[in-house]
Amino acid sequence: MQSQNQHVPYDLCKPQHILVTGGAGFIGANFVHWVMKNHPEVYITVLDALTYAGRRSSLKGCDESRYTFIHGDICDAQLVEQILAQPGKRTYDGRPIAPIDAVVHFAAESHNDNAIADPMPFLQTNVTGTAVLLQAVRKHHIRFHHISTDEVYGDLSLDSPEKFTEHSPYRPSSPYAASKAASDHLVRSWFRTYGVPVTISNCSNNFGPYQHVEKFIPRQITNILTGRPAKLYGAGLAVRDWIAVDDHCAAVWAVLTRGKLGETYLIGANGEHSNLDVLRLILTCMGKDEHDFEHVADRPGADRRYALDASKIERELGWHPQHTQFEEQIERTIAWYASHQEWWIHDKAATERSYQLQGH
Ligand code: NAD
Ligand code: TDX
Question: Which residues contact 34 (CB under 8 A, 6 or more apart)?
Answer without folding.
Answer: 246, 249, 250, 253
